Amino acid sequence: MKSSITPVYKFIVLCLLLTGTTTLAHAQLSVGFRGGISYSGMSYRPTVAIPKKKVHGVKSKPVYGIAIEHYFKDHAGVELDIQYLTTGYVEYNDDETLSNETELDYLKIPLLSSFYFGRTGRFHIKMGPHFGYLLNATDVRREFESNNADLPILPTYGQPGDDPKKFMYGLTAGAGISKVFGKSTIVAEVRASYELGRPESQDRIFDMSVTNLEFTVSYLFQVMERK
Hints:
Elements: H1 6-24, E1 28-45, E2 53-57, E3 61-73, E4 76-92, E5 99-118, E6 121-142, E7 167-181, E8 184-195, E9 207-224
Antiparallel strand pairs: 1-2, 1-3, 1-9, 2-4, 3-4, 4-5, 5-6, 6-7, 7-8, 8-9
């Protein structure tokens, strides 16, 4: 049986090859850590004939990981992150007395084009695709079910037999400011991402949309200077 993690492995290998190629070309290379908090949002369409319904996302969840930044020319480069991220939802019943909550923990890998303006004090924008792999699905709370079989609510994803899709993919864009201190750089930024995939694999609901906001600070140290 073919493992569902294979595309992620292939992507990581491709990124490492890209990193090695740019390094050999004497690009500026910085490596560091990135951490902060994230806020997710979710909406879903129970069936094709019913408009989308918005639910609460999970809030103030930690996001952290490794950042690798290459600048192969003035003011332009790429950034590869390998990070841990939690998304999910909180859905309430009609009178908001009961709720269901599910958290989805991912290994997320954004590969972003990066453009900056300024020298020691910089403004930057970043954009590109992201990919990831579901590490864990947890149904934190399940207090109610739908009273109408023709109007399903969001299902569980952490129970036996749920079998959520493991592979995530989507688009990420962000902006921020940074300050350079010699070989060190401190970066503060906000990123927004939209998921093109979804965890639902059994067609229990027709469609869902997942968004995420990340507020982070990074510390990067230059390990190779561009020549």
